[in-house]
Amino acid sequence: MRTIVVKIGGRLLHSITATEINVGKTAEYAEVLRGLSDDGYRLAVVTGGGDAARLYIGAARRLGASEALCDQIGIWTTRMNAYLLITALGSKAHPVVPRTVYELVGALESGKVVVMGGIQPGQSTDAVAAIASELSGAQLMIKATDVDGIYTADPKKDPNAERIPEITHGELLKLILDAGLQAGEYAPLDPVALKILARSRIPIRVVDGRNPENVRKAATGEPIGTLVKPEEKRET
User: Fold this and answer.
1) Are 139 and 196 in contact (CB under 8 A)?
2) For 124, which of 48, 173, 190, 235 could close a Cys bridge (C-beta 3.0–4.6 Å)?
3) Do residues 205 and 228 make contact, with C-beta atoms less than 8 angstroms apart?
4) Cβ-based neighbours of 193, under 8 Å, separated by 6 or more
């Protein structure tokens, strides 16, 4: 059975700009995930916090909350997003959001789609998905985001940015750490997550999650978005 971990950016599931959760998009993701589960894929899904997390964290900071509490608020928000997706999945979903990756591994034995959010302060949901990929023995991680792959620069700001069809873990890490891709700038993947995937040689495909169908395409091997692959092994 092929195991895949899917990271869904919270911004894809809803946007607070209209103070409304995108129920339709959540339902679309549920339909795609149900179909993959029916086709025999073992699935773990990690949801981000998106605009909702930013909204609550911003309010907490203005009220004087510590950064540790702000992190915890972000985690709670990712778990609320996870429960919304679980609700949309119905009987296909494991009914409880795992609070640790070890709970995730146990939940996967149910044969259901397992959905989770953040785990601990200071850790991104990219990193959670990478650790989940490692511990579950996943053959692929898919990151669904609001860009159609990884670019040489921020495509929303630089019209000369070019999409990269394939890149190795090491090459991407160098790209992220180069000038202009530091914290607060364009960073297509958390460097911690990337290092975790690299050490276990797990490929990740970054796709445009604004169309949930792209997750199915990535899972079934279609060459969309950007494939981040392990370095070639050197002969000794």
Assistant:
1) no
2) 190
3) yes
4) 124, 126, 127, 129, 130
Alpha-carbon gap, residue 78 to 125, rounded angstroms: 8
Q: Which of 73, 92, 93, 91 is nearest to 82 (CA)?
A: 93
- Burial-class residue 61 by CB neighbours within 10 Å (0-12, 13-18, 19+): middle
DSSP letters of 81-134?
A: HHHHHHHHHGGGB-SS--SSHHHHHHHHTTTSBEEE---STT--HHHHHHHHHH
Handedness of CA 193, 194, 199, 205 (dihedral sign): positive
Q: Is 20 helix (H, G, I), strand (E, B) or coil?
A: strand
Q: Do 36 and 43 meet the contact criterion of CB atoms below 8 Å apart? A: yes
For residue 148, count other CB atoms closer than 10 A to its CB. Answer: 18
* Segments in the chain forming alpha helices (H): 10-13, 23-38, 50-62, 67-89, 101-108, 125-136, 169-177, 191-199, 213-219
Walk along the chain (236 residues) and give the pLDDT tens digit of each residue.
Answer: 799 999 999 888 866 554 567 788 999 999 999 999 999 999 999 999 988 888 899 999 999 999 999 999 999 999 999 999 999 999 999 999 999 988 999 999 999 999 999 998 888 999 999 999 999 999 999 999 999 999 988 888 888 989 999 999 999 998 887 745 443 445 688 889 999 999 999 999 999 999 999 999 999 999 999 999 998 876 65
